[in-house]
Amino acid sequence: MEPATRVAVTVTFLRMDRSPAEVAPGLPTSCQVVRAASCTVEFYRYLYDTVGADYVWWLRRTMPDDELAALLANPLISIHVMYSDGEPAGFFELDARIWPDINLSYFGLLPHVIGTGVGYPFLRQSVDLVWRQGARGMTVNTCTADHPRALPTYLRDEQNRIEKLAAQAGLDFFPTVFEILTYDQMNEIAAYGGFPNRYPHWRFGMEYERLAKSYEYGLSKIYEMVINNNPSYAYLLEGNSLVDQKLVMAHVYGHVDFFKNNFCFRSTDLDTWGTLVQPVHRKGGNYDPDRKWIDQMANHGARISRHIERWGINKVESFLDQCLSIENLIDPWAPFSGRAVVRTEAQQEEDQEPKPVPRLAAKAHVYLGLIALNSLDKHHGTFSGILCTGIVGGAVVPFAIGYLGDHIGLLGGLCVLYVPLIYILSMSVWARPLVTNKKIGDA
């Protein structure tokens, strides 16, 4: 007997009471589904073991051959195999022993076709076959050991149904995207204030530790989160029952309708500015504001990360601490107060003036050297100026400034050293062309 390993899984039981309303997607022309009318034990074990090797399929693997053969011979149990280019690509098993309901006992793809896009059309083949047989309902169960896309496939159908019901009830909402997160991922995003990317700061880690401990001790549980974004993003907690997930999705559409139509949330439009005092501001049937707050937060985080690379984490973190200490003084209702920001004429003129470009920090003798270089360049050529200034400034000046700075101070040392030096170089440059011209004239 093979050694046993205990694996903890969460099982979700699903039930469908009506046929899907949307048109089923078709399989590729290279695929076809065939019922195995006389499925042998060997062929069934090949399908079962190959499909379920990575997903803890164990029940039929431990079943003796005679019991499995009797099960496959039962006319109420049917095995349907999908072939792709002539070779098996997946199978599903229907069990009608609980008629008028039919249970989808097993469904899966062989590893070589996972990711090719045939999973959902193949699943619809099984669902449509159940309803063509006149069943009252269809049942299936899935668990956290199954493929991670197994449950979202069912939730996508539920989302479409709930979205239509919400629209029929008069709700008007942004397009909504649902994602499933584990509890630690949910706590991480909740610590960031609901956004997947923020700037680095210690208080986010502190909030994550608080939420994680509260969940582990059974003191709190986050069922869902929804972001005021366009399109809106909502997160569902992995492991919740299907009833919980459906309630949360319906609850989310109520949130998103409030985000879009409540006047107070108009101040979160990124493409509006100024004071919002008119309740009909930008109200209309084609109201589609720019609320890409996930991108905006990610951009802010990237900008602060660049400042950290330039200035260091300690200096930037200290600045953030000071800003966050007065965060509670920000008035979120200021855009609705009607108080316009009045700027004086001096402030307006100051805004229109060109901003000076700050120069890089450097020692004083560098600037004086550049002045000398500019003077030499005008009168004697660039190469000679760089050569003279470089030799003097690079070799002599640092030692001279260091010596003079210890005795008469840095400013005095600069004056004593550079003023005569620049004067001598300037005079030599002016004198050299005169001497050359005189020799030519005498000849």
Describe what you observe in this structure.
- Helix 11 runs antiparallel to helix 12 (382-408) and helix 12 (382-408) packs antiparallel against helix 13.
- The protein has helices at residues 41-52, 65-73, 119-132, 150-168, 183-191, 202-216, 242-261, 293-311, 313-325, 345-352, 364-380, 382-408, 410-442; strands at 11-16, 31-35, 77-84, 87-95, 101-109, 137-143, 176-181, 224-227, 232-237.
- Mean pLDDT is 76; it is low at 382-410 and 428-443.
- It folds into three domains: 11-145, Aminopeptidase (3-Layer(aba) Sandwich), CATH 3.40.630; 148-280 and 288-348, no CATH class; 364-442.
- It is elongated and about 90 Å long.
- By secondary structure, the protein is α+β, with helices and mostly antiparallel strands.
- 49% of the residues lie in helices and 14% in strands.
- A hairpin with a 4-residue loop joins strand 8 and strand 9 (232-237).
- It has 13 helices and nine strands.
